[in-house]
Write a structure and sequence with these properties.
alpha/beta, Rossmann fold, globular, six-stranded parallel sheet, about 190 residues, two-stranded antiparallel ribbon, about 20% strand, 8 strands, 8 helices
Length: about 190
């Protein structure tokens, strides 16, 4: 890792007024205050067709994978759709693999209109564990985003602090030495 860790955040929302993008911005600010350089990967700016294993370099997939691979830590942010994470984030993660996520520190953030966006984080955690990422135990959620976020800012101070703490934690643990490969990762080889 470089002297200054580099943190990328992947926004799993395509909405122009995305609450997920707002919350990731707060997390990235926290990472910057902890000494990291940061970058937002806005999936609206990339052409990523639905993943086809026979066309793994389709569209902007090589750019996406390069940017994730060059990071020292990754933040994944998603709105909660039907109890899980967004399809656009799923597509982005499908283009990535062990080269991008193995032994990588990953922080998770979810935003929801309702109260309990935790299941989306559970699903993301399973995907990241299968790729041998080191997923932070700490995670951030923004429930009832229509109230918590106003005019592009998190107005709920406790939720804003949780998002900023997530950014600080990915920097804090960017150099962690993960445990040996998980059983799940060995089962996914060649899938």
């Amino acid at each position: 890792m470089a002297d200054t860790p580099h943190v990328v955040a992947i926004c799993g929302s395509l909405r122009d007024e995305s609450h997920t993008r707002t919350a990731l911005g707060v997390a990235l600010d926290g990472a910057e205050r902890a000494g990291a350089s940061t970058e937002l990967i806005d999936l609206r700016e990339l052409e990523l067709p639905v993943f086809d294993a026979d066309a793994q370099d389709a569209g902007d997939a090589p750019e996406l994978t390069r940017r994730v691979r060059e990071a020292d830590a990754v933040l994944l942010g998603t709105p909660m759709y039907h109890g899980s994470y967004s399809s656009v984030l799923k597509t982005a993660l499908d283009y990535c693999g062990f080269d991008e996520f193995e032994n990588e520190t990953v922080g998770l953030l979810a935003v929801a209109g309702g109260r309990f966006p935790v299941s989306a984080l559970d699903h993301l955690r399973s995907v990241c564990r299968a790729l041998d990422a080191w997923v932070l135990p700490y995670q951030a959620v923004v429930p009832q985003a229509y109230q918590a976020i106003q005019d592009g800012e998190i107005v709920d101070e406790e939720l804003a602090e949780r998002a900023a703490t997530l950014g600080r934690r990915v920097v804090q643990y960017a150099e962690i030495e993960p445990d040996p490969d998980s059983f799940e990762s060995e089962e996914n080889v060649g899938a």
